[in-house]
Design a protein that fits this description.
Elements (H helix, E strand, L loop, with lengths): L5 H8 L16 E5 L2 E4 L4 E4 L2 H4 L8 H11 L13 H13 L4 E7 L2 H18 L7 E5 L8 H5 L17 E4 L7 H8 L6 E6 L3 E2 L5 E2 L2 H13 L3 E5 L23 E4 L11 E6 H5 L20 H14 L2 H22 L7 E7 L2 E6 L10 H11 L2 E2 L6 E4 L7 H11 L7
Parallel strand pairs: 3-15, 5-6, 5-7, 7-10, 10-11
Antiparallel strand pairs: 1-2, 2-3, 4-12, 8-9, 11-12, 13-14, 14-16
Length: 427
């Protein structure tokens, strides 16, 4: 009798994320990766056009990152991060504090983007409690935001399909529109009467990713941040997705003159190799917890806090990211996206492709079919058609986007672009 395939074995024992299993096709077994390519058990290759959920910066199986992980693994793989410390954690913190936007002075480690956000929210609320202002405990956030799937992260995310089942269990949040010149005064009027109750404001700087790759202007965010700072509200920049070159600059906060009090990082932090989360903060945040009163301690931690392997991977990824060759590749992808939009998308396909936009290494547009949103069935159709062409894409409903690893070649990009031009035939 023939042995079951890996996909068939998976179907009996695995519960996949964001997956309705009654409509589930057998998963594609991926056995290896090299550069931009993923390879299945039959040897078929797929261009990873979305960087495996936006985490992979330098390509799969990168030998430099793998070697650094190996070297660390045979020395120290894990140690409790309370009474102890280790070189990779300290070196990574020192390095990040030198390149992050604003005036960050402390790094708190966790293990993914959602937990980095949870840490920031807890810090913001306890910051005020430690100063004798426990009623300053509301959180301000943008509509259409996405900050993760744990309860705090869901609470500060826009109400949507992702949060519907848990609405009654999410804490109250003050939601505002992303700023534009015409709505800025209205936003201020909404915040003003609540300002002495708001502990912090969390935002994805200039790009709301999971919310539909929504781009908004840095100058408008600057004006809003300046106003919020004037009300003594702490600002939390969620750079989990926008960090490490995705928007063209090292961090999206580099487009802004107004700085955050806390920054959340994950995804590309380790180049896509291991899970790691970081919440950076300014000295005044840290000082509010440094006290002879033990009750003012920040009581939060994770079993794998500052895991040495993950920190080593992050240091290796930064080595690659800061190399001239990587910086050139980010610029190359940006220019290729611009050329493709100008020469192919902005003229004869305007009736099919809507709201064409790009930012750094990201290109996005909506397909004019049905209602906008995550559950638009065209996304699944596009994904299946792309797989047949040896390309992996995962549209957000009718929002189609590219976010490739930085090592992608012109030939590989052109193959993806050529596929995008066939989409009108799918409608």
């Amino acid at each position: 009798m023939k042995s079951p395939s890996l996909g068939e074995r998976d179907a009996k024992v695995i519960w996949h994320p964001y997956t309705q299993h009654q409509q589930f096709e057998l998963p594609i077994p991926i056995v290896s990766g090299s550069g931009v390519l993923l390879f299945d058990e039959d040897g078929q290759s797929y261009i990873d056009a979305v960087s495996s959920w936006w985490v992979n910066l330098h390509g799969h199986g990168h030998p430099y990152i793998a070697e650094k992980i190996y070297q660390q693994a045979i020395k120290l793989e894990q140690v409790i991060f309370t009474r102890f410390t280790h070189e990779p954690a300290v070196a990574l913190a020192e390095r990040l504090l030198n390149i992050l936007p604003g005036k960050m002075t402390r790094i708190f480690y966790s293990d993914n983007g959602s937990t980095a956000v949870e840490v920031a929210l807890k810090m913001a609320i306890q910051f005020w409690k430690n100063q004798g202002k426990p009623k300053r405990n509301k959180i301000l956030a943008f509509e259409n935001a996405y900050h993760g799937d744990t309860f705090g992260a869901m609470s500060v995310s826009g109400r949507s399909l992702f949060t519907d089942a848990f609405t009654d269990h999410l804490f109250e949040v003050v939601f505002i529109e992303t700023p534009r010149q015409e709505n800025l005064e209205k936003i201020k009027e909404m915040i003003e009467p609540l300002s002495d109750q708001i502990a912090g404001f969390i935002y994805e700087p200039i790009l709301q990713a999971a919310g539909g790759m929504r781009i908004y202007e840095a100058k408008d965010l600057n004006l809003l941040l300046n106003y919020i700072h004037s009300k003594k509200i702490l600002c939390i920049a969620d750079e989990v997705m926008t960090g490490f070159g995705r928007t063209g600059k090292l961090f999206a906060g580099k487009y802004l003159s107004a700085s955050a009090d806390m920054i959340c990082l994950s995804k590309g932090l380790t180049g896509g190799s291991l899970a790691l989360g970081i919440t950076a903060c300014t000295q005044n945040i840290f000082d509010a917890f440094s006290s002879s009163d033990y009750k003012k301690t920040f009581f939060h931690g994770h079993s794998f806090t500052a895991n040495p392997l993950a920190c080593s991977a992050a240091l290796a990824s930064l080595d690659l990211l800061e190399a001239d060759s990587c910086i050139s590749q980010i610029q190359f992808i940006y220019l290729e996206h611009q050329n493709f939009i100008r020469e192919k998308l902005s003229d004869d396909h305007h009736s099919v492709f809507r709201n064409i936009r790009s930012l750094g290494t990201i290109l996005a547009f909506e397909l004019n079919t049905g209602k906008d949103g995550y559950i638009n069935e065209i996304g699944k159709i596009v994904m299946q058609a792309a797989l047949k062409e040896g390309i992996y894409m995962r549209p957000l409903g009718n929002t189609i986007y590219l976010m490739p690893p930085y090592c992608i070649t012109k030939e590989q990009l052109d193959k993806v672009y050529a596929f995008l031009l066939t989409l009108p035939h799918l409608l």
